[in-house]
Design brief:
8 strands, VOC domain-containing protein, alpha/beta, 4-stranded mixed beta sheet, Glyas_Bleomycin-R_OHBP_Dase, 2,3-Dihydroxybiphenyl 1,2-Dioxygenase, domain 1, 2 domains, VOC_core, globular, Glyas_Fos-R_dOase_dom
Amino acid sequence: MPVVRKVQGVLYRVQDLARAKAFYGETLGLPMRGEDPEGRWVEFGPPRGPRILLHQSPEGAAGNAGGGALFEVRNARRVLNRLKRQGVRTGELVEIPGVMVLGTFYDPDGNPLHVVQSLLPKAPRRRKAPEEGEAGPAEGSAPGG
């Protein structure tokens, strides 16, 4: 039995919570999902799925090291260019032919974030099989006929 039930989200420590809140909410356009009344943390993300939790670091505490959140986008190059025009520090754009385009950018505290654009072909939509008791195609009828 797996210990982990689901990925809850990503935690970033930030030096200036108000600045980080503006970046994630206004620059990236993520909806705010919750906020500590005492001003120690704020949470961003879609109604369902993983969240980004920003936590006010104690004075002089080191920032995050390592990986960063991945945001699925339709066009990674366009998103990185838009962020760059808004004054956001961006990194290189890497393409893995036939698989993905991955771009890196940084929040005001230098935490890495990534945009990813899938280059994989979309799977054809499957037609849902009728549930038990639902009417399906009449026996002997040809598909589409």
